[in-house]
């Protein structure tokens, strides 16, 4: 008989496989049913009909849709994402070159999000519960709400205007040096950090009102020990769940930020592929993003069931 944890892992892997299959089918159908000729878009209006026809035949786009799908799935099973219509380079090669920058940006933004959100949320909850810093609590709440509401592209423009153009402290764009990371990482992290801080604050309110916290205080333990030993562990589940969603969202949100800061990641590739109707590239990028999101969710679920075996997630 399988152990509960192994059974849980197998169920999650099965769902991941089904989700990937749905993504593959949906992406293929959507990009192929969009009006327009990708070969003509890639070759330009001056290309001769003979060249367009030859290119379509070379890429297999002259085959029936079902045959194209069968060939595409067979290629995926071999690890072959196809060849870009626009650049004539293997899609997998382009993704392998660009995805590390995107992943680095997303992971760094996630670290900043968590490191900033946990102390802010905990401190805001403790301060609000004590009732001694009403003005400060109001300011913090307003700032968090503002950061949540501001779109990332608008935040990026504002940070460039202040820190690059006006103050000259940081480069406007680029990639490779640590200083190039500051603005794009902050642009990605500030909104999610404010959102996660709000979640932590709400969870902390619940924890502070619990009976075990009352018992801990009655033992006259130092406040720091009460919060670290009794409060923080009980907000981990909600924080991890939201954190996993944030990391998944950050990976996709890098597209716009990469374009603003001229970062050589998947953002530029995605925009160019969509604009040029580059079917293989669009399918490859979407599949990589989907696999990343599903993988992050799987890891978060495994961490949750390890940290809290009683979690209801173990039942699903």
UniProtKB/TrEMBL annotation:
InterPro entries, A to Z: BPD_transp_1_N, MetI-like, MetI-like_sf
Keyword terms: Cell membrane, Membrane, Transmembrane, Transmembrane helix, Transport
Domain ABC transmembrane type-1: 99-300
Residues making up the signal peptide according to the UniProt record: none
GO CC, alphabetical: plasma membrane
Stored Gene3D superfamilies: MetI-like
GO terms, biological process: transmembrane transport
Coarse class of the protein's main subcellular location: membrane
TM spans (from-to): 12-34, 103-126, 138-169, 181-205, 226-247, 253-274, 286-307
Matches recorded under PROSITE patterns: ABC_TM1
Name of this protein: Peptide/nickel transport system permease protein
UniProt lineage: Bacteria, Bacillati, Actinomycetota, Actinomycetes, Jiangellales
């Amino acid at each position: 008989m399988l152990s509960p944890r192994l059974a849980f892992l197998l169920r999650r892997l099965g769902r991941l496989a089904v989700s990937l299959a749905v993504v593959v089918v949906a992406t293929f159908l959507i990009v192929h049913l969009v009006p327009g000729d990708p070969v003509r878009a890639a070759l330009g209006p001056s290309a001769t009909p003979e060249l367009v026809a030859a290119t379509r035949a070379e890429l297999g786009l002259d085959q029936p849709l079902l045959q194209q799908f069968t060939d595409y799935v067979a290629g995926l099973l071999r690890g072959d994402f196809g060849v870009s219509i626009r650049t004539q380079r293997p899609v997998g090669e382009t993704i392998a070159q660009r995805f590390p920058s995107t992943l680095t940006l997303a992971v760094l933004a996630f670290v900043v999000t968590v490191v900033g959100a946990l102390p802010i949320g905990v401190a805001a909850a403790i301060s609000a519960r004590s009732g001694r810093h009403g003005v400060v609590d109001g300011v913090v709440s307003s700032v968090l709400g503002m950061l949540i509401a501001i779109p990332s592209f608008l935040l990026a423009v504002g940070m460039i205007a202040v820190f690059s153009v006006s103050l000259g402290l940081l480069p406007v764009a680029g990639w490779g040096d640590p200083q190039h990371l500051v603005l794009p990482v902050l642009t990605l992290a500030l909104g999610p950090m404010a959102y996660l801080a709000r979640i932590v604050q709400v969870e902390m309110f619940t924890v502070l009102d619990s009976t075990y916290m009352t018992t801990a205080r009655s033992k006259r333990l130092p406040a720091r020990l009460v919060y670290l030993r009794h409060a923080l562990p009980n907000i981990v589940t909600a924080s991890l769940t939201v954190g996993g969603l944030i990391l998944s969202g950050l990976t996709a949100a890098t597209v716009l930020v990469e374009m603003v800061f001229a970062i050589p990641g998947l953002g530029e590739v995605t925009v160019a592929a969509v604009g040029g109707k580059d079917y293989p590239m669009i399918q490859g990028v979407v599949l990589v993003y989907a696999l990343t999101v599903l993988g992050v969710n799987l890891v978060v679920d495994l961490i949750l069931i390890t940290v809290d075996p009683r979690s209801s997630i173990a039942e699903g």
